[in-house]
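Case study.
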Amino acid sequence: MFGKRLKMAAKKAKRKKDKLIESLIAVVGEDAIYYEHEDLLAYECDGYVIHKGLPRAVVFPSTTEEVSQIVKILHAQKIPFIPRGAGTGLSGGATPMGGEVIISLVRMKQLLEVDFENRRAVVQPGFVNLKLTNAIAEKGYYYVPDPSSQRTCTIGGNVGENAGGAHCLKYGVTTNHVLGLEVVLPDGEIVNIGGIPDMPGYDLLGLLTGSEGTLGIVTKITVKILKQPEAQETVCALFDRVEDASHTVSDIISAGIIPAALEMMDKIAIEGVEKGNYPVGYPKDLAAVLLIEVDGIKEGIPEQIEKIIQICQNRNVREVRVASSEAERQAWWNNRKQAFGAMGTISPDYLVQDGVIPRSKLPEVLEKVAQISSKYGLRIANVFHAGDGNLHPLILFDSRVPGDTEKAVAAGSEILKVCADVGGSITGEHGVGIEKKEEMRFIFNDEEIALQVSIRDVFNPENLCNPDKLFPTASRCAEVKAVKRASG
Amino acid sequence: MSRLVAAEPETRNSNYIFEDPPDEDKFSACVHCGMCLEACPTYQETGLEQHSPRGRVHLIKSVAEGKMTLGEVFSDSVFQCLDCRACETACPANVQVGTLIEQARGQVRQAMPLRGWKGLLSRIFLRGIFPYPRRLFFLGTLLKFYQKSGLQWFCRKTGLLRILPDHLRQMEAVLPKVNKPVITRYPAVVPAEGETRKKVAMLTGCVMDVMFSDINEATIRVLTRNGYEVHLPRQQKCCGALQLHAGDREKAKQLARQNIDAFLAADVDHVIVNAAGCGAALREYGELLHNDPEYKEKAKNFSEKVVDVAKFLHDNGYRKPTGRVEKRITYHDACHLAHAQGIRFEPRKLLKEIPGIELVELPDADRCCGSAGIYNITNPEMASRLLQKKIASIPDQVELVTMGNPGCMLQMAMGVHQHHRKEQVVHTVQVLDWAYQRETEQ
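After joint prediction, the assembly is written out as follows.
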C-alpha cells in the first residue's frame, strides 16, 4: 500500500524527475524515496523545531551496500547528505539546512546478533534503543544508555549524538558501550572500526561516536550488553528549597555513593509532568524533587539507602521514601522520562538546553538561570541529570508571539555561557547540531575549532556529510545574527 | 538556506477553508518530541514520518500555516491513520491526535469528495443505511435470508463469491449468524432481577445489534441479574463513529444530537456501551459538539454518563459468578477501550474472577488488530499486516480470545479463520454470562 502510494507519487512527477532522483531510484527502487515537495514537509526538522529546512529528497536504503551506493552517487555529484534515525534529536542534527538528501536509516532496523557469552549485541542503525533491552531482558541482560526518548530513538542516532540518559551517571554514556562500528565514509567506502576491546592505534571509535554524522554514516553497531543488577532501589525525595536539593546531590556523591541515577526536577518542571500523561501526584507547592536510584549486590543496597535518607534529612527534606513496588518505581520514572514532551501541556513550544556544570556550582548556576528567566520574561523549567551536573533548562515560549522565539534562543545561549563560565560545557548529550554551533566559541577558540575542522576534513574533506553542523560557520547566516542582536 | 522559524501566523494563510477545522490549541500542544513514533502501528510498519502521529500532526499544522494543501499527500497521511489512539497513550503532552485526525478528515472530504463507486458505497452505507435502524435491520434480514436460505451455500459452492475482493471474501466467510436485533424484541425497560440498584440505559448499536445481538442479550442478562434496570431507548441511533472516521462530521453531529436527546429523555444514571468504538465516540460527543451552542452543555452531561460495560460492573459492583468456565483464555485490548478510554484492568479482573478461567497475557495486547472501524475495508493491506502480527502473538493452547469490541471480533475471527486456527473469539461479557448460566446447570 505504502509502496504503491510512493510509486503513484513517482508516476505523477515523472516529468519533474531529474537525473539525481533517477539514479537514486535505480539503487533503492521507487518505493524507497520521497522527492516531491509535500512529501518532504514532514522531514523539515527533528525534535529541535526552531530551525526548519527542506531536504531535496529522502531515501530509505535497506542495506549497507545501498547506503554506500547512494553516498557514492551523491559524492560524485557533490550533493550534501544527512543521515537520519528516528528524528528525535534535540539540536537539529538531522534537520536540513536546505537541499540536502536525507538518508533515513529506519528500514535498517534488525537486531543482527546477540552474543551472551561475550556480552555483546550487533544491531543495524535503525534499531530502536529500548527494543534491545526488551529483546535480552528475559536472559537477565540490558543495554545501559537510556535517553528519555529510548522508546523511539535509534541506536544509530545514539551513536551519532553520543547519547546519555538517566542511568549514565554510574555506567557511562553511549561511547562507553560501543565496541565496533561499520561505517560508510563520505565517499561511499565501507569500513569497519573496532570490534575488540582496546584496539591499538588511535581511538577512532571514540572519535566517531558523537561526531553527529559529520564523519560518515554508521550502518552496523556492536554494543556491550550488561547483566541486570541483582537489586535496585529508588528513593524519591521532596524538597521545599532548590538549594537543599542541590546540596543533597553534592552530599550524596561526596559521601562516596555512586547512584545508578540521580535526577532532579524543579517547580515548573513538576507542574508540567503533573499535567502530562503520567502524573504521580507530587504536591503543587514543591520546589524540587530528587529521584535517586542505587543498584548492585543485594546486601549492599540497604546501607546506601539508609545513608541517602539520612543525607536528605540533614538537608531539610519535606518527605523522603523508597519505592514500595516496581509499579511505583516505574511510575516515578515514566513521569520523569516524559518531562520534555509534557511541557506541551503548559507551553506551545519549548527550547531545551543541555549545559554541563561542576556539581558544586549547581545552586549558583540555578540562581543565574532564574535571573535569565526574568530578564527575558520567559518561564524556564529545570530538569537535570543532577548526578553528573547535566542541566536541561526547558525554556518555554510561544513561537506565534512575535519575538518570542528569538528571546528563547538568546536566553538559551546565555544559559550556556553561564555553564561555560563556571568551567562546564554547552552540551552533555544532545549534541551541538545547528543549535549550538555558535556557542562552541564559548569553549573553543578559533584555533581549536580550526584544528577540529581539520580532523573532520580527513574523513569528510568536501563537507558533504551533514554539512554546516557542529562547528560555527565562518559567515553566519543573517537570521542568526539578527537573533544575536536581539539578545543584545 | 534553513530558516529560523519565528512568529509564523498560524491562521492567516490557513488552507483549511471549511468549517470546523483542526483546533489550533490541540495541534500546538505537540512539541515534536517523537515519543509517539514507536507506539504507532502504521509507523512501525512503514517507518515513514508522515505515517506517524508526530508527522501527521506536523502536516495538520502545515496546512494551517498554508505550507501544505488539502491534497493527495495530506489525505493519504490522515486516512492511513487507524485512529487507534495508541499515540495518545504514549504522548507526554496529552495531544488529542484522534480528534485532530477526525477534524482533518472532515476538511479533506469536503475538499476532495469521494467519487466513483467508493463515493457511492460510502454514501449508501454511511449516510443511507447506518443512520436508519430500520434500513439496517432490513439489511440484517436480507443477510439472514442469505445465510439460511441456502443462498450462502450456493454462492460459496459455485464460486460466485470470487467476484468480491479478497478481504471482503474473507470477511464473508466469518460473518456471524444473524439474529433479530434486541431493540425490536426486548421491551423498552427490562426490569432488574430482585431489588433495583440503579437504572441504566444501553446503546444497542447498529452493527452490534445486527451481527452480535447475542452479545447484547448477554449484556442485558448480566446487567439485570446484578440488579440493574436496563432501558433501551427506542429513538437511539448509530453512534456516528464510522461517519466521523470517514470525515463526514455533519452526519456524525446529527446522530450525536439524536442520541443525546434519546438518552437524556430516558433519565438514567448511566449509559452502558458494550462496543469500545461506540463507547469512545459517545464519550467524545462533548468534544464533537463543542462549537454547538445548543448542545454543548447537554453533550458534556451526556458524555459523563457513558461507561463501558466492564468498567461499569467493576465500579458499581457485581456478584462474582460461581459457575465454572474451564478455559485457558487471553484478552485483546480494543484500542478504543485501552487507549481511548483507559480501560485495561477492569475487563481482565472480571475475567480472572470467573472460576476455572486461566488468563494468559497476549503480548502487545494493546496493539491495533487492524479492524479500526471500517479501516479493514478501506485499507485492506495495512489491516491485514496488522492482523497477521496480532494472530501470530496469540499464546499457545488458548481456547478463547476475549475482547470488548465487535469490530475487533470480526477482524480476529477472520484472522483465526485464515490461519486455520481453533480459538473462539468472544466478548468479555459473554464469558461472564456463561459463568452465571452454569450456576443453574451445576
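Observations recorded in class. The two ends of chain A are 53 Å apart (CA to CA). Residues 132 and 352 of chain A are 27 Å apart (CA to CA). We will return to this complex in the next lecture.
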